[in-house]
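Encode chain A's predicted structure.
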Amino acid sequence: MKKQLLALVGVLSLILVAGSAFAQSEEVRANIPFDFVVNKTTMPAGTYSITRTGITSDALAIRGLSCKAALLVGTMRRSSAKTNDRSKLVFHRYGDRYFLSQIWVEGSDHMRVLPKTNLESEVALDLTSKDVILYASAR
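Encoded structure for chain A:
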């Protein structure tokens, strides 16, 4: 009986550790050297942490570690053909304006896509977009 109880505790511990490792791998940290737009909010340059909120599977929290910026944003989850080898943030750049577009997490087989806002659509009418990729660290 004691052996069964110990085995059960061991299995439950492994499940908890695996679950917490997965949750931690969903955090991405990056030093963004330029101001950027998410939704309708301009975020200042700085170091940011991006994590799942737990409210819904598509909601992410973007928090400035070097500034007092914070934002909750809805995303769409898209499958990737292969497992991501590095965490990265993809921005659409129009002139000197940057819009956060995608979030890739190392070791995951999906990415998060932020919907194009009305502001980005307006800017895109006058300027051509160029993708800017910043590599980040998964925590």
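The longest helix spans residues 2-25.
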